[in-house]
TrEMBL record:
<dbReference type="InterPro" id="IPR044527">
    <property type="entry name" value="NrtA/CpmA_ABC-bd_dom"/>
</dbReference>
<protein>
    <submittedName>
        <fullName>Aliphatic sulfonate ABC transporter substrate-binding protein</fullName>
    </submittedName>
</protein>
<keyword id="KW-0472">Membrane</keyword>
<keyword id="KW-0997">Cell inner membrane</keyword>
<dbReference type="GO" id="GO:0042597">
    <property type="term" value="C:periplasmic space"/>
</dbReference>
<keyword id="KW-0732">Signal</keyword>
<comment type="similarity">
    <text>Belongs to the bacterial solute-binding protein SsuA/TauA family.</text>
</comment>
<dbReference type="GO" id="GO:0042626">
    <property type="term" value="F:ATPase-coupled transmembrane transporter activity"/>
</dbReference>
<keyword id="KW-1003">Cell membrane</keyword>
<feature type="signal peptide">
    <location>
        <begin position="1"/>
        <end position="18"/>
    </location>
</feature>
<dbReference type="InterPro" id="IPR010067">
    <property type="entry name" value="ABC_SsuA_sub-bd"/>
</dbReference>
<dbReference type="GO" id="GO:0005886">
    <property type="term" value="C:plasma membrane"/>
</dbReference>
<dbReference type="Pfam" id="PF13379">
    <property type="entry name" value="NMT1_2"/>
</dbReference>
<keyword id="KW-0813">Transport</keyword>
């Protein structure tokens, strides 16, 4: 009789635990009811802004899915969030994505976000008329080894033979948020900035600096994805349907930008103000837009070439092999 009573108590409990275990999170073990998408408040990431403002992820994900958004100041914090599962996907520069992949991170680039948009700005009064004048000067980038840093340092090394003091060269390097570069120019704290749009156009409009090297002349300026859409390999393997739905929304956002540029610009102005508390003028947005191509297409060769440059500059300890990083099955 006691055995029967024990089974009577345990069977409902076992059923309850099984039910709890069946409601999996976004790791692909079941249908997630909540996901988080990440991006930066940069013009290269307008697809993230449009997708949020137009609620495009809710259109492609299963009914009842809650979509959250998280904003990042740099690629390192974004990649950490991908690896820990705090976000399920989003836009980041190719530099952090490749650096983390070569360090063992289990991630996939499943689409691009945009190309172009990196500009090298010189502070007014810094006595810099050409890149050759960078000897002994200080430049700023968002992070050490980030996309914009590698683009600038590759150009300076290959074209002018000038390198950072990090590798016993002639330029001093500091880091900071792009939204602060105009004020740092005004205060005379840095001489040159390798800047993602719209902050280059903002510096131009405020009269604190001038273009030293424009987008087409920066290393990989028009071929390298300025932003890539990244998710975890675990999510790709365990829940490819979710990844397909996420990428489909991202593609829809990109198409919207291509077909509705003026509305997309208005969304970018609004979202950047919401996130950074800085309101950009129409002039700044229009100028920045001219330097960027919004696309979800990505070529692995361009990423590999860029990664080789990261290695040549000493940002990577071993020559990188990006085999397995890019998964184009979701954009084909």
């Amino acid at each position: 009789m006691r055995k029967i009573w024990v089974l009577f108590v345990l069977l409902p409990l076992i059923g309850f635990l099984a039910a709890c275990g069946s409601d999996a999170g976004a790791n692909g073990e079941g249908d997630s009811k909540e996901i988080t998408i990440g991006y930066f408040p940069n013009i290269n990431h307008v697809a993230g802004m449009v997708a949020e403002e137009k609620d495009l992820y809710s259109e492609t994900l299963p009914d009842g899915t809650t979509v959250n958004y998280q904003y990042f100041p740099d690629g390192s914090s974004f990649m950490t969030a991908i690896e820990t599962g705090d976000i399920q996907g989003g836009l980041v520069g190719p530099g952090p994505a490749m650096n983390h992949f070569t360090s063992g991170a289990k991630i996939n680039v499943v689409a691009a976000g945009s190309t172009g948009g990196t500009v090298i700005m010189a502070r007014n009064g810094a006595d810099i008329e050409s890149p050759e004048d960078m000897v002994g000067k200080t430049f700023i980038s968002p992070r050490v080894g980030c996309t914009h840093d590698v683009q600038f340092e590759t150009l300076m090394k290959e074209e002018y033979g000038i390198t950072s003091s990090r590798i016993d060269g002639e330029m001093k390097h500091v880091t900071g948020k792009p939204a602060t570069y105009a004020s740092m120019f005004e205060a005379g704290k840095v001489d040159v900035a390798t800047v993602p749009e719209p902050w280059a156009s903002s510096i131009e409009a405020e009269g604190n600096g001038t273009v030293l090297i424009d987008t087409p002349d920066v290393a990989y300026g028009e071929t390298l994805p300025a932003a890539v859409f990244v998710t975890s390999q675990e999510l790709v393997n365990d829940n490819p349907e979710m990844v397909e739905n996420i990428v489909e929304a991202h593609k829809n956002a990109t198409t919207f930008i291509q077909e509705n540029p003026e509305e997309a610009k208005a969304i970018a102005i609004k979202k950047i103000k919401d996130i950074t508390d800085q309101e950009l003028s129409q002039e700044v947005i229009d100028n920045a837009w001219e330097r960027i191509d919004f696309t979800y297409e990505v070529e692995e060769k361009h990423l590999q070439d860029f990664a080789n440059s990261s290695y040549d500059l000493g940002f990577l300890e071993e020559k990188p092999d990006l085999t397995g990083l890019v998964d184009l099955s979701f954009v084909e």
